Amino acid sequence: MTQKQLIELVQQHHPDIGETELRLALNRAKDDFCAKTEIITANWTQNSVAGQRYYSINDAILRIKDVQVNDVSISRLVGKPIIDDDEFDGASGLTASGTTSNERFWYVDGQRLGLVEKRASAVSREGVSSDYQSISEIKEIRITAISKDADFTSDLTETGSIPTQFQEALVQKVISELMLRQGSSSFNPQLSEIFSAKYAVVVKDAKSYARDGKINSGSAIIVPTDF
């Protein structure tokens, strides 16, 4: 369904709510639906920078499933290395390594993706040592992740990436929430519970659908973090 059709369905129960407010409500419903069902998988690509460890994680990413460097999946590192070698300047700390390794790992540090390589010899600083260094070559990074759907904009013809058979769940979620607004002419907690239960049923069905890996929304770009 298009955004316009979704808005019109909500307005059958909430005729006094305008298009802009309903668009925001539908976008919140999208985020909730995608987080609960993990129905959308997307790819982000970016070239690494030699000696740079951290890369920003797109706000749309909910959970990273896989990271590849030059089309080869690399393992996730448990925890993080004790030395962050790219956070020191060359004059007072560590510089980019002149050696490289194909034994690479990734980890998440807040909203950053860390990429490291296993060193043949440990790097030391302030009495501590680490077996890892920041990625030392320019390589293509590809993240495969569970993600949110793109927000609706003012283009009412947009349909989004959630499969058609589940899109009415967005309507049910918005109708349910708006029925809980105190002072609203459509305030109805009992009916809200009915629509909320309908939403929960569709979420359950969509989870099963997502486990079969039937949806992929395409590719995007990740951005290097500047220090």
Descriptive account of the structure:
- The chain is α+β, with helices and mostly antiparallel strands and 227 residues long.
- The chain has two domains: 3-40 and 149-219, no CATH class; 41-145, no CATH class.
- It has helices at 3-11, 19-37, 168-178, 189-211; strands spanning 41-47, 54-56, 61-69, 72-76, 104-109, 112-125, 128-134, 140-147, 216-221, 223-224.
- Strands 1, 2, 3, 4, 5, 6, 7, 8, 9 and 10 form a ten-stranded mixed β-sheet that branches.
- A hairpin with a 2-residue loop joins strand 5 (104-109) and strand 6 (112-125).
- Helix 1 (3-11) packs across helix 2.
- The longest helix has 23 residues, at 189-211.
- 32% of the residues are buried.
